[in-house]
Specification:
By secondary structure, the chain is mainly α. 74% of the residues lie in helices and 0% in strands. It has 14 helices and no strands.
């Protein structure tokens, strides 16, 4: 916390509590991504994949362990919002990305490039910057105060826009582009997630006041916020499962973090007016910290498919394109890869210095391999 004169005065006790809870939350949530992914893989091997609309993962114990781990993390996150402003708590979710990417590298063998490690470091630096300059939590004495903030015209306009955009994505874009564009599933999660956090914060404040002796459970607004929280979390869980099952974890986690955090901070600024009482220097420092975190997540995203030592850090165009494909069954993946490689080599043949006879022979070998793979697949089935 920095005063109006620009000197550091230390964090308030509530902000410290929120910080500890947020760090614990990141640890549990980061680990849960990996455990759930392992469960989704097992479920997909014996039933319809979540990315194809299946729910066989509900019978997989490993997925439930991951789900319980995530719930513990979300409970800690829930409590953190009751003590600290969203602009402090939400960016610390970057630590869950670091944990998730590291565990994906170790357990799922999803390679983490050197630049990905640099991205993790940037996330940490940005998080520390925001922690040191975050605003204090505003004093709220009743859930009715939160309700009044939520029903102001500015936030109602934001909420209506978010719900409308989410419905448009679900109805219009998910059926067409959900399995090929990661932004569709994550867009739904992030939009609904920003409203979820505002409702979680409202409910957390109500419970904190109740536990401190001022009962808020008699107000209908408390239960309205509870219903909104449940609806939002169920929607987020559904589409996050689809995203995790369809795309690489090291890609899903940072993109989801960037979108979710950006929209949540925007919603908090509109609803709770976090920047009121802060000067321009403090606001700019927080923005710089947030941009630093975004830079780190961008590095994690763009280098997720890179492996140290491969072509001196540059992937071939064939491998890079194959790594960007969504995940499907092994046979269909093999057919697609052969077709793509054949197409790429035909495109490169005009520029290649190799003899035309050698190029022609390689193309014929690849064309012959495709029906052979199909025959082998049919005999196995």
């Amino acid at each position: 916390m920095v005063d109006s004169g620009g000197s550091y005065k230390g964090m308030s006790s509530d902000n410290v509590k929120g910080l500890v809870l947020a760090l614990s939350s990141s640890l549990f949530i980061g680990a849960s991504f990996i455990v759930k992914k392992k469960g989704l893989k097992r479920a997909g091997a014996s039933g319809l994949r979540a990315g194809s609309g299946g729910y066989s993962y509900l019978l997989e114990p490993l997925w439930w362990i991951g789900m319980i781990t995530m719930i513990v993390g979300e409970i800690a996150n829930f409590a953190a919002y009751a003590f600290a402003p969203a602009i402090l708590v939400t960016p610390l979710g970057a630590l869950s990305i670091i944990i998730s990417a590291s565990l994906a590298h170790i357990i799922l063998h999803e390679k983490l490039h050197t630049f990905g490690i640099l991205g993790c470091a940037l996330c940490i630096v940005g998080s520390v910057t925001i922690v040191l300059h975050a605003p204090q939590e505003r004093d709220i004495d009743s859930v009715l105060e939160v309700w009044n903030l939520a029903t102001e015209p500015a936030f109602l306009f934001y909420a209506a826009g978010v719900v409308g955009a989410a419905i448009l994505l679900i109805v219009q874009f998910v059926p067409l582009y959900g399995k090929s564009h990661v932004m569709v599933y994550i867009g739904v999660c992030s939009l609904i997630g920003s409203l979820s956090v505002m409702s979680v914060k409202a409910l957390g404040i109500a419970l904190k006041l109740t536990f401190s002796g001022t009962n808020q459970l008699g107000y209908p607004q408390t239960w309205v916020f509870t219903v909104i929280v449940l609806m939002c979390i169920l929607t987020q869980m559904n589409y996050l499962n689809k995203a995790l099952d369809t795309f690489n974890t090291a890609v899903v986690s940072p993109i989801y973090y960037v979108m979710f955090t950006s929209l949540t901070i925007l919603a908090s600024i509109i609803m709770f007016k976090d920047w009121d009482g802060q000067n321009g220097t403090q606001i700019m420092t927080e923005l710089c910290g947030f941009v630093t975190i975004l830079s780190g997540t961008f590095l994690l995203h763009t280098t997720a498919d890179m492996v140290d030592g491969e072509s001196k850090g540059n992937l071939s165009s064939e491998n890079h394109l194959l790594l960007r494909l969504p995940k499907h069954s092994e046979d269909s993946k093999g057919f697609a890869q052969e077709g793509i490689i054949l197409s790429l080599r035909r495109q490169e043949s005009a520029k290649s210095p190799r003899p035309a006879r050698q190029i022609k022979q390689q193309e014929e070998d690849l064309e012959a391999a495709v029906p052979l793979r199909r025959q082998e697949s049919s005999s196995r089935s």
